[in-house]
Each structure stands twice: as C-alpha cells, then as structure tokens.
Amino acid sequence: MSTDRIEQPSPDDETQRSGHMAALSVAEHIVSISPIVPNDVRAHCADFAPDQPSLDVYFHHCVEGVEQLAKALAGQAVAGPFSESDPRLHVEALLSHSGVPIRAWTLLPAGDAAVVTR
Fold it and tell me: Which residue stretches belong to region Disordered (predicted)?
C-alpha cells in the first residue's frame, strides 16, 4: 500500500488564480462590448503581484478601435508621438473595468498621414 502526498496550493497561488480569472472575465467583457473587435487581448497577473491583474488590448493600426472602446468604458484616448525619436502616432487609453486596469492602444505605421510632429 502506498500513499501519495497531495500538496495544497499556497494562498499566493490561489490569489494569482483569482487574479487571472478576474482579468479573463474582464477580457471576455471587453471583446463582447468593443464596437471594433481588438486584434489582441492579453491578461496579465504576475506572481510578484498576484492581486493586481491587468489587460493589454491592441488594435492593429486602428485609432477608432481605441477611441470607441474608451468611449464605451467612459474613458478617453490620448494621442501623441510614440517617442522622442519616433514620430509615429501612438494612441492609448488607460481604462478600468471591475477593478482591473486596461491599457488599450494602437501604433500607426511610419508614413501614415497621422504621423505626429513636435
């Protein structure tokens, strides 16, 4: 006769699991309400911050996607150059739903008419 030891998950594991589930639930909501379907939705819940899930929502070359999602969540999109040395238009909205932070964004290609100059 043998016995197998079954290890119980640690409280941190359960916290991280709950964080993932919260982020995935919000991701499902975002995809269902977004007027334009995002190209990529990523849920994050790091082991060093298991109670701080977040979402990253990417719209490929689609400013309208970011703006419309921001509007749907009572937020605002902000546009500007990607960086000091890269004038491509970067549009981002920092949002929240059910306590989960959401970063919706897009980056337009070089040569697009919407390139920002300083």
Answer: 1-20
Helix, strand, or coil (residue 3) = coil
Q: Total structural domains in the chain?
A: 1
Q: How far apart are CA 27 and CA 100, in angstroms?
A: 10
Domain that holds residue 48: 11-107
Report which DSSP code applies to 43.
E
Q: Which amino acid, one-letter code, is at 41?
A: V
Instruction: Quick: pLDDT tens for 33-66.
Output: 999 999 999 999 988 898 999 999 999 999 999 9
Q: How far apart, in whole angstroms, are the C-alpha atoms of residue 41 and residue 63?
A: 16
